Amino acid sequence: MPTPPSALSLAQALIRCPSVTPEDAGALGVVAQALEAAGFSVERPVFSEAGHPDTPNLYARLGRSGPCLVFAGHTDVVPVGDAVSWRHDPFGAVVSDGMLYGRGAADMKGGVACMLAAALAFVEHRGGTVPGSIAFLITGDEEGPAVNGTVKLLAWARERGERFDHCLLGEPTNPARLGEMIKIGRRGSLTGKLTVLGRQGHVAYPHKAENPIPGLLRLTTALIAEPLDGGSAHFDASNLEFTTIDVGNTATNVIPATARATFNIRFNDDWTSDSLGAELRRRLEKAAGNSVRYLLDLQPSNSPAFFTRPDSFVGLVSDAIRAETGLDPVLSTTGGTSDARFIKDVCPVIEFGLVGETMHQVDECVAVADIERLTAIYGRVLDAYFS
Ligand SMILES: N[C@@H](CCC[C@H](NC(=O)CCC(=O)O)C(=O)O)C(=O)O
Ligand SMILES: [Zn+2]
Ligand SMILES: [Zn+2]
C-alpha cells in the first residue's frame, strides 16, 4: 500500500480545483484517486434534474460488514466574490504564516481532506482492512440548490442496498477555536422567487401601464412584517432574508413589466417546507388583495430541519475532541444548513469540522495546525468506533 497523503497536501490539491457549484474541475478525481489507492471501491454517479445542471457525486466504501461509519461532505464551493481583494490566489492553496488560504479551505475542502487522511492512515495501519466498513458520501452540489447532490446520492445508495450506522459530516462547525462546537441539528432552507406582474408603459402615461414596483414593495413588506416564530425547543427562530430585488430597467422613462425578489428562509422544526409555503402564500394573498398580480416559485430542496439526540456516538466524538484539544464541545443547532438534513433520514448524523470564521468570505483560510489536529480527531473517532 502506498504511504497515505497528508491532509494538507490533499486540501491543497482540492483547493487548486476551482469547483464553484456546479463545476467539479477535477475535485472529485482527487478524492477518488486517494480512496482507490487505499483499496476503497469508488463510484461517481452524475445526477440530473430538469432546470438544473448535471452534477457529479462520489460514493466509496471499504468493507461490507457492519458497523458502517460514513464520512460525508462536499467539494463544491461558493464563488470567490471580489477576486482582486484576496491576499492570495483563491485557488492557489497558498500557506502563509501557518494559514492555508483558498476558497473551500474551511468550507469544506479542508474537512474533506482531514477525513480522507484519517481514514487512509487508519486503513494502512490495519493492513488494508477495516473491522466493519468505512464509507464516503461526497457531493459536488451542496452550496447550490442541492437537488443533484446528497439527497439523490442517498437514494442511489439505498437502491443498491447500502446501509449506514452513523455519519460524521465535516462542515466547519467551530466559530473560532477547533474543538468548541459540534452541530447536532440544522435548520431547513427554503428559497423563494417572487415575481410581480405589471404592464410596461410610458412614465408620463401611468394610466396606460401598471407599475409592478409598488406591488413588490407591498408584498415583500408583508412577508417580513411578523416574525415566523420565536424559536423552538432545539432551534433558533426561523428567519427570512431577501437576497436580491431586481427590476433590470435601464430606462428612466419606462414603467417596467415585472419586478422580482428572491429570498431564503432558514426554518426550524415548527415548520415543514409545505406548512411554511402555505404561510407565505397566506401573507402574500392578504397583502395582494385584488390589486397585485404575482407568481411565487418555492425551491425547497426537500429540506426540513434535523436534530440528532445526544447519544453514545455524540459522546464518542466529544471524547475524541476533548482528548485532542482539551475543549468540551458545545452541542449546537445554530448557523447555516447542511446535507445532514438529508442524511438524518438514513442514520444518526452529527457534524464536526474546522473553524468556519472565514467561510464564504474573501481570504477564506484555516490554520495548518487545525488541519493536523482535525485529522487526529477523526483518527481517534475511527479508533474508538471500531474498537
Ligand atoms: N443552498 C443550499 C444549502 C447551502 C448550504 C450552506 N451551508 C453552509 O454554508 C455551512 C454553513 C455553516 O456551517 O453554518 C448554507 O447554509 O447556505 C440550500 O439552501 O438548499
Ligand atoms: Zn459547507
Ligand atoms: Zn457553505
TrEMBL record:
<keyword id="KW-0862">Zinc</keyword>
<dbReference type="InterPro" id="IPR050072">
    <property type="entry name" value="Peptidase_M20A"/>
</dbReference>
<keyword id="KW-0457">Lysine biosynthesis</keyword>
<feature type="binding site">
    <location>
        <position position="107"/>
    </location>
    <ligand>
        <name>Zn(2+) 1</name>
    </ligand>
</feature>
<feature type="binding site">
    <location>
        <position position="143"/>
    </location>
    <ligand>
        <name>Zn(2+) 2</name>
    </ligand>
</feature>
<feature type="binding site">
    <location>
        <position position="171"/>
    </location>
    <ligand>
        <name>Zn(2+) 1</name>
    </ligand>
</feature>
<comment type="similarity">
    <text>Belongs to the peptidase M20A family. DapE subfamily.</text>
</comment>
<dbReference type="InterPro" id="IPR005941">
    <property type="entry name" value="DapE_proteobac"/>
</dbReference>
<dbReference type="Pfam" id="PF01546">
    <property type="entry name" value="Peptidase_M20"/>
</dbReference>
<dbReference type="InterPro" id="IPR036264">
    <property type="entry name" value="Bact_exopeptidase_dim_dom"/>
</dbReference>
<feature type="active site" description="Proton acceptor">
    <location>
        <position position="142"/>
    </location>
</feature>
<feature type="binding site">
    <location>
        <position position="74"/>
    </location>
    <ligand>
        <name>Zn(2+) 1</name>
    </ligand>
</feature>
<feature type="active site">
    <location>
        <position position="76"/>
    </location>
</feature>
<dbReference type="InterPro" id="IPR002933">
    <property type="entry name" value="Peptidase_M20"/>
</dbReference>
<dbReference type="Pfam" id="PF07687">
    <property type="entry name" value="M20_dimer"/>
</dbReference>
<dbReference type="InterPro" id="IPR011650">
    <property type="entry name" value="Peptidase_M20_dimer"/>
</dbReference>
<comment type="subunit">
    <text>Homodimer.</text>
</comment>
<feature type="binding site">
    <location>
        <position position="107"/>
    </location>
    <ligand>
        <name>Zn(2+) 2</name>
    </ligand>
</feature>
<protein>
    <recommendedName>
        <fullName>Succinyl-diaminopimelate desuccinylase</fullName>
        <ecNumber>3.5.1.18</ecNumber>
    </recommendedName>
</protein>
<keyword id="KW-0220">Diaminopimelate biosynthesis</keyword>
<keyword id="KW-0170">Cobalt</keyword>
<keyword id="KW-0479">Metal-binding</keyword>
<dbReference type="GO" id="GO:0009014">
    <property type="term" value="F:succinyl-diaminopimelate desuccinylase activity"/>
</dbReference>
<keyword id="KW-0028">Amino-acid biosynthesis</keyword>
<keyword id="KW-0378">Hydrolase</keyword>
<comment type="function">
    <text>Catalyzes the hydrolysis of N-succinyl-L,L-diaminopimelic acid (SDAP), forming succinate and LL-2,6-diaminopimelate (DAP), an intermediate involved in the bacterial biosynthesis of lysine and meso-diaminopimelic acid, an essential component of bacterial cell walls.</text>
</comment>
<feature type="binding site">
    <location>
        <position position="360"/>
    </location>
    <ligand>
        <name>Zn(2+) 2</name>
    </ligand>
</feature>
<feature type="domain" description="Peptidase M20 dimerisation">
    <location>
        <begin position="184"/>
        <end position="290"/>
    </location>
</feature>
<comment type="pathway">
    <text>Amino-acid biosynthesis; L-lysine biosynthesis via DAP pathway; LL-2,6-diaminopimelate from (S)-tetrahydrodipicolinate (succinylase route): step 3/3.</text>
</comment>
<dbReference type="InterPro" id="IPR001261">
    <property type="entry name" value="ArgE/DapE_CS"/>
</dbReference>
